[in-house]
Amino acid sequence: GVLARSLSSLASQLKARIGELTAERTHVRQLLVVGRQFMADASHELRTPVMAIQGYSETLLAGGADSSTSRQFLETIHRHADRLGRLVEDMLRLSALEVRPAEEAIVERVDVGGVASAVVETLQARADAHDVTLRLDVNEGIEIGGDPLALEQVLENLVDNAIKYGRRAGTIAIRARTEPRTQPNRVEVEVEDDGPGIDAKHVPRLFDRFYRVDPERSREKGGAGLGLAITKQLVESMHGSIRVDSEVGRGSRFILEFPRFE
Ligand code: ADP
To answer: How much of the chain is helix, strand and coil, in % rounded to 5?
Structure first.
């Protein structure tokens, strides 16, 4: 009786443990697949600018190009070197975020209005260059618990995208609000543009690394599709969430939710 009972309890413990190990193995395998995919995508992205730099510099070194052609080649080399630099920066930022243990994340009182107006100030010149109006609509005293630099980076990425992919002479609104009655512990921050919007079929993958809606058009604008992946990672490091609400022809609204500071 006793022996049989303890044997059967041992058996069920073993079974549970095997189940755990199997789940762990599946998880590790998934991580490996994700890592390999990242390597493949990153190498692919790095290859184009490297090849361009190699090709154009070899041509220049071979001599014979007149000075206006040389100048054009140098400009091309410079543009690709810039792209390479931005790509490496983005990759470093993403991997730094991934290796940082959660307990090292900075959690302090962040005044959303203050950060948002700093972002508007930083991007005002870029907005002017696109004839875009930036509208700030944040009440005083809205505070989240997080990292001010991370929030700044997040809003900068979203507003920068809204300028880059939005419409010329459009309007971008940055808002923050609380819903004291329904969601007293949450703060909602949003960045809305009146640009071309994003087709629903792209939305599920929009925050994936290297994902671009229109690779050709967005490569021209300098992105490798890492911006929103970095943004999402930063938001999650502050225990927040991000989603997008968009309609083709109407515009896009990126909605962030953060825990309120208390
Ligand atoms: P990138 O770093 O190349 O700019 P992101 O990850 O920031 O890439 O964005 C991914 C894709 O989402 C972009 O290629 C762009 O097509 C689309 N996108 C991002 N923001 C907007 C927006 N406000 N309006 C329309 N499309 C957008």
So the answer is: 60, 20, 20
Spacing, Cα 204 to ligand 1 middle (Å):
13
Q: Which atom of ligand 1 is nearest to the CA of 212?
A: 14
pLDDT tens per residue across span 130-189: 999 999 999 888 999 999 999 999 999 999 999 999 999 999 999 999 887 888 889 999
Distance CA 253, CA 244 (A): 6
Q: Determine whether 242 is exposed, middle or buried from the number of CB atoms within 10 Å of its CB (0-12, 13-18, 19+).
A: buried
CB 91 within 8 A of CB 42: yes
pTM for the complete prediction? 0.85
Residue with tokens 């209005």: 113
Q: Which long-range contacts (CB under 8 A, 24 or more apart) does 30-36 make?
A: none
**Which atom of ligand 1 is found nearest the CA of 222?**
3
Nearest atom within ligand 1 for CA of residue 213? 16
Cα angle for residues 104, 105, 106 (degrees, 5° grid): 115
ipTM of the complex: 0.98
Residues whose beta carbon lies within 6 Å of some atom of ligand 1: 161-162, 165-166, 193, 195, 198, 206, 211-214, 218, 223-228, 252
